[in-house]
Design brief:
single chain, 320 residues, alpha/beta, Rossmann fold, 7-stranded parallel beta sheet, 3-stranded antiparallel beta sheet, 14 strands, binds ligand FO1
Protein backbone atom coordinates (compact mmCIF):
# COMPACT_ATOMS: atom_id res chain seq x y z
CA UNK A 1 0.00 0.00 0.00
CA UNK A 2 1.30 3.47 -0.92
CA UNK A 3 0.49 6.10 1.66
CA UNK A 4 1.18 9.84 1.34
CA UNK A 5 1.23 11.90 4.53
CA UNK A 6 1.42 15.73 4.66
CA UNK A 7 3.39 16.42 7.82
CA UNK A 8 4.43 19.29 10.02
CA UNK A 9 6.80 18.84 12.96
CA UNK A 10 6.14 17.14 16.27
CA UNK A 11 2.51 16.00 15.72
CA UNK A 12 3.24 14.76 12.21
CA UNK A 13 6.41 12.95 13.26
CA UNK A 14 4.76 11.19 16.19
CA UNK A 15 1.81 10.17 14.03
CA UNK A 16 4.21 8.74 11.44
CA UNK A 17 5.87 6.59 14.09
CA UNK A 18 2.45 5.08 14.88
CA UNK A 19 1.61 4.71 11.20
CA UNK A 20 4.82 2.77 10.56
CA UNK A 21 3.88 0.39 13.35
CA UNK A 22 0.29 0.08 12.09
CA UNK A 23 1.30 -0.50 8.46
CA UNK A 24 4.81 -2.01 8.51
CA UNK A 25 4.69 -3.05 4.86
CA UNK A 26 3.35 0.24 3.49
CA UNK A 27 5.45 2.47 1.27
CA UNK A 28 5.11 5.81 3.04
CA UNK A 29 5.95 9.12 1.36
CA UNK A 30 6.01 12.13 3.65
CA UNK A 31 5.56 15.59 2.16
CA UNK A 32 7.16 17.80 4.80
CA UNK A 33 6.41 21.43 5.58
CA UNK A 34 9.33 23.75 4.93
CA UNK A 35 7.55 27.03 5.70
CA UNK A 36 9.04 26.88 9.23
CA UNK A 37 12.57 26.89 7.80
CA UNK A 38 14.84 29.62 9.04
CA UNK A 39 18.31 30.91 8.19
CA UNK A 40 20.44 31.35 11.32
CA UNK A 41 24.19 31.95 11.65
CA UNK A 42 24.45 31.50 7.87
CA UNK A 43 22.88 28.04 8.13
CA UNK A 44 19.65 26.69 6.72
CA UNK A 45 17.56 25.09 9.47
CA UNK A 46 14.57 22.91 8.50
CA UNK A 47 12.79 22.18 11.80
CA UNK A 48 9.92 20.08 10.49
CA UNK A 49 12.01 17.92 8.14
CA UNK A 50 14.53 17.36 10.93
CA UNK A 51 11.84 16.55 13.49
CA UNK A 52 10.44 13.84 11.20
CA UNK A 53 13.92 12.54 10.37
CA UNK A 54 15.15 12.44 13.98
CA UNK A 55 11.88 11.03 15.37
CA UNK A 56 11.71 8.18 12.89
CA UNK A 57 15.47 7.65 12.96
CA UNK A 58 15.69 7.36 16.76
CA UNK A 59 17.62 10.60 17.34
CA UNK A 60 14.92 12.90 18.72
CA UNK A 61 14.79 14.46 22.17
CA UNK A 62 11.56 12.73 23.19
CA UNK A 63 10.59 15.13 25.94
CA UNK A 64 10.88 18.25 23.78
CA UNK A 65 9.71 16.59 20.58
CA UNK A 66 12.32 18.57 18.59
CA UNK A 67 16.13 18.67 18.54
CA UNK A 68 18.60 15.90 19.30
CA UNK A 69 18.75 13.38 22.06
CA UNK A 70 21.74 13.82 24.37
CA UNK A 71 22.31 17.38 23.21
CA UNK A 72 24.77 20.04 24.42
CA UNK A 73 24.84 23.75 23.61
CA UNK A 74 28.50 24.76 23.55
CA UNK A 75 28.37 26.37 20.09
CA UNK A 76 25.30 28.40 21.04
CA UNK A 77 26.98 29.54 24.26
CA UNK A 78 30.14 30.51 22.40
CA UNK A 79 28.11 32.47 19.84
CA UNK A 80 26.30 34.24 22.68
CA UNK A 81 29.68 35.14 24.21
CA UNK A 82 30.38 37.04 20.97
CA UNK A 83 26.98 38.69 21.31
CA UNK A 84 25.69 36.72 18.35
CA UNK A 85 22.09 35.57 18.63
CA UNK A 86 19.26 34.83 18.51
CA UNK A 87 19.44 33.31 21.96
CA UNK A 88 15.76 32.38 21.91
CA UNK A 89 16.24 29.56 19.38
CA UNK A 90 17.83 26.44 20.87
CA UNK A 91 20.24 25.02 18.33
CA UNK A 92 22.33 22.28 19.91
CA UNK A 93 25.79 21.06 18.94
CA UNK A 94 24.64 17.78 17.39
CA UNK A 95 21.84 19.54 15.54
CA UNK A 96 24.32 22.13 14.20
CA UNK A 97 26.08 19.35 12.28
CA UNK A 98 22.88 18.62 10.33
CA UNK A 99 22.49 22.28 9.37
CA UNK A 100 26.15 22.56 8.37
CA UNK A 101 25.91 19.53 6.07
CA UNK A 102 22.62 20.82 4.61
CA UNK A 103 23.97 24.32 4.00
CA UNK A 104 27.19 23.00 2.48
CA UNK A 105 25.27 20.77 0.05
CA UNK A 106 22.84 23.55 -0.88
CA UNK A 107 25.84 25.81 -1.49
CA UNK A 108 27.30 23.16 -3.79
CA UNK A 109 24.11 23.32 -5.85
CA UNK A 110 22.07 20.37 -4.62
CA UNK A 111 18.34 21.00 -4.23
CA UNK A 112 16.76 20.60 -0.78
CA UNK A 113 15.09 17.33 -1.86
CA UNK A 114 18.48 15.78 -2.69
CA UNK A 115 20.00 17.15 0.52
CA UNK A 116 17.14 15.68 2.56
CA UNK A 117 17.65 12.31 0.90
CA UNK A 118 21.35 12.47 1.75
CA UNK A 119 20.64 13.33 5.41
CA UNK A 120 18.09 10.50 5.57
CA UNK A 121 20.74 8.04 4.34
CA UNK A 122 22.20 8.39 7.83
CA UNK A 123 18.93 8.33 9.79
CA UNK A 124 17.05 5.68 7.81
CA UNK A 125 13.59 6.98 8.82
CA UNK A 126 11.86 4.14 6.95
CA UNK A 127 9.77 6.58 4.90
CA UNK A 128 10.55 8.63 1.81
CA UNK A 129 10.85 12.16 3.17
CA UNK A 130 10.29 14.89 0.58
CA UNK A 131 10.28 18.63 1.26
CA UNK A 132 7.06 20.17 -0.08
CA UNK A 133 9.23 22.30 -2.38
CA UNK A 134 12.85 22.91 -3.28
CA UNK A 135 12.02 26.61 -3.45
CA UNK A 136 12.28 28.94 -0.50
CA UNK A 137 8.94 29.45 1.24
CA UNK A 138 8.92 31.18 4.63
CA UNK A 139 5.91 31.55 6.85
CA UNK A 140 5.54 35.03 8.32
CA UNK A 141 3.00 36.11 10.91
CA UNK A 142 1.47 39.60 10.96
CA UNK A 143 1.13 40.94 14.50
CA UNK A 144 0.48 44.23 16.25
CA UNK A 145 2.91 45.34 18.95
CA UNK A 146 2.37 48.64 20.79
CA UNK A 147 -0.04 49.78 18.08
CA UNK A 148 2.49 49.02 15.35
CA UNK A 149 1.81 46.40 12.65
CA UNK A 150 4.71 44.17 11.72
CA UNK A 151 5.45 40.78 10.27
CA UNK A 152 7.75 38.34 12.02
CA UNK A 153 9.19 35.00 10.99
CA UNK A 154 7.02 32.08 12.15
CA UNK A 155 9.76 30.86 14.52
CA UNK A 156 9.93 34.27 16.16
CA UNK A 157 6.16 34.20 16.68
CA UNK A 158 6.15 30.59 17.91
CA UNK A 159 9.32 30.29 19.95
CA UNK A 160 10.26 33.83 21.01
CA UNK A 161 6.77 35.25 21.48
CA UNK A 162 5.15 31.87 22.35
CA UNK A 163 2.15 33.03 20.28
CA UNK A 164 1.36 35.43 23.12
CA UNK A 165 -0.06 38.10 20.81
CA UNK A 166 -2.85 37.58 18.31
CA UNK A 167 -1.83 36.59 14.80
CA UNK A 168 -3.55 38.96 12.36
CA UNK A 169 -2.51 36.97 9.30
CA UNK A 170 -0.30 34.05 8.39
CA UNK A 171 1.52 34.41 5.07
CA UNK A 172 3.58 31.68 3.39
CA UNK A 173 5.96 34.12 1.69
CA UNK A 174 7.18 32.77 -1.65
CA UNK A 175 4.56 30.03 -1.87
CA UNK A 176 2.81 31.36 -4.98
CA UNK A 177 6.01 31.19 -7.00
CA UNK A 178 7.09 27.82 -5.61
CA UNK A 179 6.86 24.42 -7.27
CA UNK A 180 6.29 21.06 -5.61
CA UNK A 181 9.56 19.20 -5.06
CA UNK A 182 10.33 16.36 -7.49
CA UNK A 183 8.28 13.30 -6.63
CA UNK A 184 5.54 15.08 -4.65
CA UNK A 185 2.84 15.19 -7.34
CA UNK A 186 3.66 11.69 -8.60
CA UNK A 187 3.45 10.28 -5.07
CA UNK A 188 0.01 11.86 -4.60
CA UNK A 189 -1.21 10.62 -7.99
CA UNK A 190 0.00 7.09 -7.27
CA UNK A 191 -1.14 6.96 -3.62
CA UNK A 192 -3.64 4.39 -2.36
CA UNK A 193 -4.37 6.63 0.64
CA UNK A 194 -3.56 10.26 1.55
CA UNK A 195 -3.48 11.14 5.25
CA UNK A 196 -3.51 14.51 7.03
CA UNK A 197 -2.02 13.80 10.46
CA UNK A 198 -2.96 15.90 13.49
CA UNK A 199 -0.51 18.60 12.37
CA UNK A 200 -1.24 22.30 12.51
CA UNK A 201 -3.91 22.95 9.81
CA UNK A 202 -2.65 26.48 9.10
CA UNK A 203 1.12 26.66 9.44
CA UNK A 204 1.92 23.00 8.65
CA UNK A 205 -0.68 21.34 6.38
CA UNK A 206 -1.96 24.74 5.18
CA UNK A 207 1.51 25.79 4.06
CA UNK A 208 2.04 22.54 2.16
CA UNK A 209 -1.34 23.02 0.43
CA UNK A 210 -0.28 26.57 -0.49
CA UNK A 211 2.39 25.23 -2.87
CA UNK A 212 0.67 25.52 -6.25
CA UNK A 213 -0.29 22.11 -7.57
CA UNK A 214 -0.36 20.17 -4.29
CA UNK A 215 -3.95 20.95 -3.28
CA UNK A 216 -5.15 20.35 -6.86
CA UNK A 217 -3.32 17.02 -6.98
CA UNK A 218 -5.04 15.86 -3.77
CA UNK A 219 -8.45 17.08 -4.94
CA UNK A 220 -7.91 15.23 -8.22
CA UNK A 221 -6.80 12.06 -6.42
CA UNK A 222 -9.85 12.26 -4.14
CA UNK A 223 -12.15 12.80 -7.12
CA UNK A 224 -10.74 9.71 -8.81
CA UNK A 225 -11.39 7.56 -5.74
CA UNK A 226 -8.25 7.83 -3.57
CA UNK A 227 -9.38 8.07 0.05
CA UNK A 228 -8.12 11.19 1.84
CA UNK A 229 -8.48 11.01 5.62
CA UNK A 230 -7.58 13.60 8.26
CA UNK A 231 -7.15 13.37 12.03
CA UNK A 232 -8.25 16.31 14.13
CA UNK A 233 -5.44 18.23 15.86
CA UNK A 234 -8.09 19.73 18.13
CA UNK A 235 -9.47 17.64 20.98
CA UNK A 236 -12.21 19.07 23.19
CA UNK A 237 -11.92 22.52 21.63
CA UNK A 238 -8.20 22.89 22.36
CA UNK A 239 -5.10 21.97 20.36
CA UNK A 240 -3.61 18.63 21.39
CA UNK A 241 -0.26 20.41 21.57
CA UNK A 242 1.20 23.69 20.48
CA UNK A 243 -0.74 26.88 19.98
CA UNK A 244 -2.75 26.01 16.88
CA UNK A 245 -5.72 28.02 18.17
CA UNK A 246 -3.73 31.25 17.68
CA UNK A 247 -3.11 30.69 14.00
CA UNK A 248 -6.55 29.17 13.37
CA UNK A 249 -8.08 32.41 14.64
CA UNK A 250 -5.95 34.31 12.10
CA UNK A 251 -7.69 32.46 9.26
CA UNK A 252 -11.11 32.81 10.88
CA UNK A 253 -11.46 29.17 11.94
CA UNK A 254 -12.68 28.17 15.40
CA UNK A 255 -10.60 25.77 17.46
CA UNK A 256 -12.94 22.82 17.18
CA UNK A 257 -12.59 19.45 15.50
CA UNK A 258 -15.62 20.25 13.37
CA UNK A 259 -14.40 23.67 12.24
CA UNK A 260 -11.05 22.26 11.13
CA UNK A 261 -12.82 19.54 9.10
CA UNK A 262 -14.99 22.16 7.40
CA UNK A 263 -11.94 24.36 6.83
CA UNK A 264 -10.35 21.54 4.80
CA UNK A 265 -13.73 20.80 3.18
CA UNK A 266 -15.21 17.70 1.57
CA UNK A 267 -13.44 18.39 -1.73
CA UNK A 268 -10.13 17.73 0.02
CA UNK A 269 -10.88 15.26 2.84
CA UNK A 270 -13.41 12.47 2.46
CA UNK A 271 -12.92 11.14 5.98
CA UNK A 272 -12.25 12.79 9.34
CA UNK A 273 -11.42 11.37 12.76
CA UNK A 274 -12.38 13.28 15.89
CA UNK A 275 -11.60 12.30 19.45
CA UNK A 276 -14.26 10.46 21.47
CA UNK A 277 -14.79 13.62 23.56
CA UNK A 278 -15.89 15.33 20.33
CA UNK A 279 -18.35 12.58 19.32
CA UNK A 280 -21.04 15.27 19.30
CA UNK A 281 -19.40 16.78 16.18
CA UNK A 282 -19.75 13.62 14.06
CA UNK A 283 -23.24 14.36 12.70
CA UNK A 284 -22.33 17.93 11.68
CA UNK A 285 -19.13 16.83 9.93
CA UNK A 286 -21.06 14.11 8.10
CA UNK A 287 -23.71 16.66 7.12
CA UNK A 288 -20.89 18.56 5.36
CA UNK A 289 -20.22 15.46 3.23
CA UNK A 290 -17.22 14.17 5.19
CA UNK A 291 -17.42 10.64 6.66
CA UNK A 292 -16.58 11.02 10.34
CA UNK A 293 -15.76 8.68 13.24
CA UNK A 294 -15.00 9.39 16.91
CA UNK A 295 -12.01 7.43 18.25
CA UNK A 296 -9.31 8.10 20.87
CA UNK A 297 -6.89 10.64 19.37
CA UNK A 298 -4.33 11.25 22.09
CA UNK A 299 -0.82 10.19 21.00
CA UNK A 300 0.16 9.13 24.52
CA UNK A 301 2.52 6.40 23.29
CA UNK A 302 3.40 4.57 20.09
CA UNK A 303 0.75 1.89 20.67
CA UNK A 304 -2.04 4.48 21.10
CA UNK A 305 -0.76 6.31 18.01
CA UNK A 306 -0.66 3.09 15.98
CA UNK A 307 -4.30 2.48 16.98
CA UNK A 308 -5.18 5.96 15.63
CA UNK A 309 -3.37 5.18 12.38
CA UNK A 310 -5.27 1.87 12.08
CA UNK A 311 -8.55 3.78 12.53
CA UNK A 312 -7.51 6.23 9.80
CA UNK A 313 -6.68 3.37 7.43
CA UNK A 314 -9.96 1.59 8.29
CA UNK A 315 -11.89 4.77 7.48
CA UNK A 316 -9.95 5.02 4.22
CA UNK A 317 -11.04 1.46 3.35
CA UNK A 318 -14.67 2.42 4.03
CA UNK A 319 -14.32 5.33 1.62
CA UNK A 320 -12.78 3.26 -1.14
N1 LIG B 1 10.99 24.95 19.64
C1 LIG B 1 11.01 25.67 20.77
O1 LIG B 1 9.97 25.77 21.41
N2 LIG B 1 12.15 26.30 21.19
C2 LIG B 1 13.32 26.19 20.53
O2 LIG B 1 14.32 26.76 20.94
C3 LIG B 1 13.33 25.39 19.35
C4 LIG B 1 14.50 25.18 18.63
C5 LIG B 1 14.49 24.29 17.54
C6 LIG B 1 15.67 23.97 16.88
C7 LIG B 1 15.68 23.07 15.84
C8 LIG B 1 14.48 22.46 15.45
O3 LIG B 1 14.48 21.56 14.45
C9 LIG B 1 13.29 22.77 16.08
C10 LIG B 1 13.28 23.69 17.13
N3 LIG B 1 12.09 23.98 17.80
C11 LIG B 1 12.12 24.77 18.93
C12 LIG B 1 10.80 23.46 17.34
C13 LIG B 1 10.17 24.37 16.25
O4 LIG B 1 10.26 25.70 16.58
C14 LIG B 1 8.66 24.24 16.07
O5 LIG B 1 8.03 23.43 16.99
C15 LIG B 1 8.28 23.82 14.71
O6 LIG B 1 8.85 24.61 13.70
C16 LIG B 1 6.76 23.78 14.53
O7 LIG B 1 6.53 22.66 13.81
Amino acid sequence: MRIVVLAGGIGGARFLRGLKQAAPDAEITVVGNTGDDIHLFGLKVCPDLDTVMYTLGGGINEEQGWGRLDESFTVKEELAAYGVGPEWFGLGDRDFATHIVRTQMLGAGFPLSAVTEALCARWQPGVRLLPMSDDRVETHVAIEVDGEQKAVHFQEYWVKLRASVDAKAVVPVGAEASKPAPGVLDAIAEADVVLFPPSNPVVSVGTILAVPGIRDAIVAAAASGTPVVGLSPIVGDAPVRGMADKVLAAVGVESTAKAVALHYGSELVGGWLVDTVDAGAVADVEAAGIRCRAVPLMMTDVEATAAMAREALALAEELR
